[in-house]
Amino acid sequence: MTLLNIQPNSMKAKLSLFVFASFLSSGLCMAQDKAPVDDWKSASSNQPGKEYPKVNSEGRVKFRIVAPEAKSVGCTFRDSSEFTKGEDGAWYGHTRPLDEGFHYYAIKIDGAEVPDPSSMMFFGAMRWGSAVEVPAHDQDFYALKNVPHGQLREIFFYSKSTDTSRRAFVYTPPGYDQNPQQRYPVLYLQHGWGENEYGWGVQGRTAWIMDNLIAENKSKPFIIVMTYGMTNDTRPGGLRNFDIKPFETVLVDELIPYVDANFRTIADQPHRAMAGLSMGGMETKMITLKNLNKFSHIGLFSGGSISMEDVDKTPGFKEKVKMVFVSYGSRELGGDRPNRGGDPKANTEALKAAGINSHFYVSQNTAHEWQSWRRSLREIAPLLFKD
Amino acid sequence: MTLLNIQPNSMKAKLSLFVFASFLSSGLCMAQDKAPVDDWKSASSNQPGKEYPKVNSEGRVKFRIVAPEAKSVGCTFRDSSEFTKGEDGAWYGHTRPLDEGFHYYAIKIDGAEVPDPSSMMFFGAMRWGSAVEVPAHDQDFYALKNVPHGQLREIFFYSKSTDTSRRAFVYTPPGYDQNPQQRYPVLYLQHGWGENEYGWGVQGRTAWIMDNLIAENKSKPFIIVMTYGMTNDTRPGGLRNFDIKPFETVLVDELIPYVDANFRTIADQPHRAMAGLSMGGMETKMITLKNLNKFSHIGLFSGGSISMEDVDKTPGFKEKVKMVFVSYGSRELGGDRPNRGGDPKANTEALKAAGINSHFYVSQNTAHEWQSWRRSLREIAPLLFKD
Prior knowledge:
By secondary structure, chain A is α+β, with helices and mostly antiparallel strands. Chain A has helices at residues 18-21, 206-215, 245-262, 279-290, 308-313, 317-320, 344-353, 370-380, and strands spanning 4-6, 13-15, 41-42, 54-55, 61-65, 73-75, 84-85, 91-94, 101-105, 107-109, 112-114, 121-124, 127-134, 151-159, 164-172, 186-190, 223-227, 272-277, 297-301, 323-329, 358-363. In chain A, 53% of the residues are buried.
């Protein structure tokens, strides 16, 4: 599916409400018609020392919830099994097979929707709450390895337009402190609706993905800046009237100058990129097309695409844009889902035919979820800032 | 109270089990004998957009929990009111007046102990879960202000002794990147039992405390390093046999060389300090007294003190130790609580009389809790690395 119908020359975006319906969806709808394979292992997303949740080789997740007096226990994954009391008095239940990768969820106890006390906490769907990692065949690319590590730095910059000190996370690549004469390009990287500035650094595994790519010489070292995209002040329906201007001001007029003053950036348009996922892709498209004197590389992950109509409407696009990257999870594409911004693959081909350096990537067997976006970062990084 | 009976020349610490009984205790025991003052305000520790929990001018905390089918709802603060269903169908209840500052808690729903979905998440008491900020008369010192900010950096260092890549957080002071010729002293700062390397950076407000002190010229700029003290592998009772050696190896043989190689430290004994809270204080005492060729400044927050017996047992103490700082919350002291390591104030006075630069600080009206430790950091910082 395509989420967005963006008019790049307007401040407003007409956003499909599909973004909400699909936000927590993941993978196949499957009835619980057979017994799960009994090879459960503790999830890597568990809190220290917690045995549950467990994941099996089918990608099912099994929960254990201690709720002695509860009448009913469940979880927010659709098509999950009934939760029943085990011999130890705790409640057990499991999900359908889930896609590889990372999934938000909550536990339900007698109608209360609460975090699973055994899960680490992540910000998504507008709350700090639970999520589970389903092991992936390609999880090595976002694993913590004994390679040279960059740093993820929490910074605060003063924003005059909002009169607040705002948090950002800045990834500096390995060697940044050891090479004080070197300057680096910068990627501004945005989270999606319901998420915040922690998303890419925590569940996105940005630092480990980049450390690993750089260790394998697959990507140039560059700086990545992640801040809150001001996406969550509006509610469903309100997004139709989402105004990019407040965030555009914070990003372009306040954060970029701060980063250029406080980090060893190459502070020019050819060495500045922006990318984002879902609503962060929408923001990326709106902001970059209005500020092509600032950005040269554009990445949209599950967040629309750029059509020749967009190109024709945007003065200087062909001269200024050095690379366009569009990606989706395979489960987001095809079928009867609307492609309101135009088919992303066809749009990419049209840009290529027009001589624009344009790339289309499909994450196989994943949906509108972090595994698609981790892979998208892995794919876009080697394409950025090529001379 | 005094938590610890440490034999500095031994690898073992005989630890009072009081540490566990007191871990979540805070403030006065008070019956719910009158109606709370009706001036509730949303807590600053709430998740974005959440109205509850609220705190009133007495320091009571009021909760709102949506649990439509629950038979009973409560919280882990002792002496709290009954939770009852309000007109909106949600459950409401409130605590006794709590101390100023930060308190861990959990919500109980039909016997399940779960995080409050409206609270931010913090690691303490061995889990990521809820906590609430009660406004403090002196909260300005740990507030986020528009002053020059340092950075809190997440780093990973390889540890041969454990064959793991281990996380640490490193606070670099304002100006660190702008002054590439300047080198800085380093404080190694430890969390307590049941906590981890996030404690000082998140609930401890380390960066904001230091930014504010430095902006007011009350502290020299220095680097602070926070890593996991390997405190949580043993359970109550097991702590009697706590072995400092694994953490001592990680800290002294692996982390310190990594930090000295990767940050612009002044890499010598006079410019290296260690401090810690509660069990982190115990670790600090054990490690520093065994490694006085590495550390010159020692801080123990609610975690024992140093006696003349300790001094006499430790070769070179008087020559090598430049400063000893001991602190407690006022509610931890006096009464019939045991002072197994010796009375901390008397110990401090004895060290002073022996010519050792020694300081004792009492955080007024706080207990074994983060408000005592935030204040302890504020108090120790100006005493560190004086020439």
